[in-house]
Prior knowledge:
The chain has 8 helices and 20 strands. With 422 residues, the protein is an alpha+beta fold.
Amino acid sequence: MNNNLNNSLPELMRRATENLEPESTDLVERGMRRGATLRRRRTALISFSGATAVLATASIIVGSNHYLGQETQPPAAGPTTTQPTTNAKGIAAKPVSQKETLETLIKLLPAHLKVVKPEWWGGAWGNGAAVVVNDGKGLARISAAVYAPGMEQRCKMSQPGTCLARPDGSFITTAKEEPAYEPRNNPGGVLLNRVTVNRRGTESISLLSTNASAEKGVDKTRAKPILSVAELTKIADSPLWRFPPKRPIETGPAKPEPNDAGVGKPAVPLQQTLQTLKKVLPAELTFTRPETWGGNGGNGASYVINDGKGLSRVDVYLGYEQPVTKCDPEGTPNCQVKSDGSVVGWTKDSPEYSDARQKLEGVLSTRVEIYYPDGRAISMTSYNGPQQKGAKHTRVKPAFSPQQLLAMAGNKAWKFPGTGTK
């Protein structure tokens, strides 16, 4: 899957709903719990900078296809599967497909824009589509997401002007020339215009326009986003958009995922994981800034250590996953299946950014992962600075090599937390 897509859709969804309050938080909480399970291997095991509870939105990306005749495999979770609704004549209508959402976006764009890089994706939440366009003055990306009805929303009264009620019963949220990152972390100068319309029937649509070929990780190609807020609003209000049907909201306590290797395994206190991390690290280090996160079937802990050569953050995340028996082509660049059946992977001195911020901060990480045949999984990461991002490095290289991290991650002292329930 395209890495830019991984990064852009969660941000699109976050921005689309940041000024809206759900009438019921049950759906949001379920999404977060589901997201924690789906992303644990690819995100939580990589590393956490503090108690990063951003597991939810990124987990909804289940696949993407490319447009205009290129044959691709379907997304891992299949295309959007929603129950058909009926049209005005009472005849069952086919659910809107991801490709149809892309086609609608292209149809509604100004005619002078040349589409050079279309793509689509989707999941139970709805459909997403994006294009890179060219008007002869610089490439720019435009993204759209249509969401299935189901979450009643209203504007936050504490933020007047950012979300406005309209006469037809809908709400609109807009932002003009908003930096893609915090200004100090936006050396590429990427700006976004965004519009979210939450319609009276509770379906909603979000649109983003940029002044660059991607929403993050690139330098700007023009001074301002290619489409204005007014142009985006006109597109969002078009009657041509079709939305996925409303899906039933589950009630009652969340159920553990099927075949979850951690179901029924005892939970482990977060402080115990933090203590074990300190135990396996060299005793002569200075330990500061202890931190923990997780606790729902996966524990994370970290310290900022000093060996006299500069501060270095070291973190760990461990729990149970579906057993991994072989090296994953999309996993770490280095991987080996051991004689006991465990799978180990590692990276060394990897840059934390792929854009101009890397030159500013220079943070590198060395990471290892161990997957055991019974589902236990652990990751350890060492940085050459006091945090993963947002601060300059304090030493040339991370404090520990892959070999040292693997030795610590393989220590018998670790207790792997399960869900604690059956």
